[in-house]
Amino acid sequence: NAGVTQTPKFQVLKTGQSMTLQCAQDMNHNSMYWYRQDPGMGLRLIYYSASEGTTDKGEVPNGYNVSRLNKREFSLRLESAAPSQTSVYFCASEEGNYNEQFFGPGTRLTVL
Amino acid sequence: GQQLNQSPQSMFIQEGEDVSMNCTSSSIFNTWLWYKQDPGEGPVLLIALYKAGELTSNGRLTAQFGITRKDSFLNISASIPSDVGIYFCAGQSGGTSYGKLTFGQGTILTVHP
């Protein structure tokens, strides 16, 4: 099992460019999450998907969109990147009842 | 939104020493989780706590779910160099927040050989 995989690992964008961060899990988990991690601020929830076909906003959703493509995949899109979106982005998945979220290795995004 | 206050922010210790860190909240949580993050990696779950007063161990790690449900602590005994990393607490409050975790700011642990 690969667990949770994320692509790309690193990305540099110019202000205004768009991109999609990909996440996939092979644990047959129902719930998936996107977080951003900034220095000294821990992890903050951007969007989550409690089950296939549903998505909901988290704490910091502005500037992002998500798609739960199927049970395995949950993508995060930046339509018009801004320097404030420079961060490390983590995807996580959870079976559903126990809050034991498993994290991917992260995508390090820099917006110039 | 909910906030978790994690302390200390950083610790510098000698190999073999014991370590203690804690998290407090102004709100009640139904679940407390402790994660460790190595440089360049995602957080990895260390211990999960589901019941007020629960004390759980995982090797040299021990964590407790506070009786008030507003705090939790993590102890590491006899630290070793590979304990280096960032430790995060996370809480889940249930109800409409089901599944959504609130994270502390992290404790950066440095272990000197």
Tally of DSSP β-strands of chain A: 11
Number of helices of chain B: 0
Q: Strand pairing plus helix content of chain A: what structural class? A: mainly beta
Order of H and E elements of chain A: EEEEEEEEEEE
Q: Structural class from helices and strands of chain B? A: mainly beta
Regarding quaternary structure, how should these chains be classified? heterodimer
N- to C-terminal distance of chain B:
40 Å
Topology at a glance:
The complex is a heterodimer of chains A (112) and B (113).
Chain A: E1 4-7, E2 10-13, E3 19-25, E4 31-37, E5 43-49, E6 56-57, E7 64-68, E8 74-78, E9 87-94, E10 102-103, E11 107-111
Parallel strand pairs in A: 2-11
Antiparallel strand pairs in A: 1-3, 3-8, 4-5, 4-9, 5-6, 7-8, 9-10, 9-11
Chain B: E1 4-7, E2 10-14, E3 19-25, E4 31-37, E5 44-49, E6 55-58, E7 61-65, E8 71-76, E9 85-92, E10 102-103, E11 107-112
Structure description:
The complex is a heterodimer of chains A (112) and B (113). Chain A has 112 residues and is mainly β. Chain A has strands spanning 4-7, 10-13, 19-25, 31-37, 43-49, 56-57, 64-68, 74-78, 87-94, 102-103, 107-111. In chain A, strand 7 (64-68) and strand 8 (74-78) form a beta hairpin. Chain A is globular, with a radius of gyration of 13 Å. The termini of chain A are far apart. Chain B is mainly β and 113 residues long. In chain B, 0% of the residues lie in helices and 53% in strands. Chain B has no helices and 11 strands. In chain B, strand 6 (55-58) and strand 7 (61-65) form a beta hairpin. The A-B interface holds A 4, 31, 33, 35, 40-45, 48, 50, 58-59, 90, 92, 94, 96, 98-106 and B 1, 4, 6, 9, 31, 33, 35, 40-45, 48, 50, 88, 90, 92, 98-101, 103-106.
Please outline what is shown here.
The complex is a heterodimer of chains A (112) and B (113). Chain A is mostly beta strands and 112 residues long.
For this entry, give a set of tags.
heterodimer, A: 7-stranded mixed beta sheet, 4-stranded antiparallel beta sheet, 0% helix, globular, B: 113 residues, mainly beta, 6-stranded mixed beta sheet, 5-stranded antiparallel beta sheet
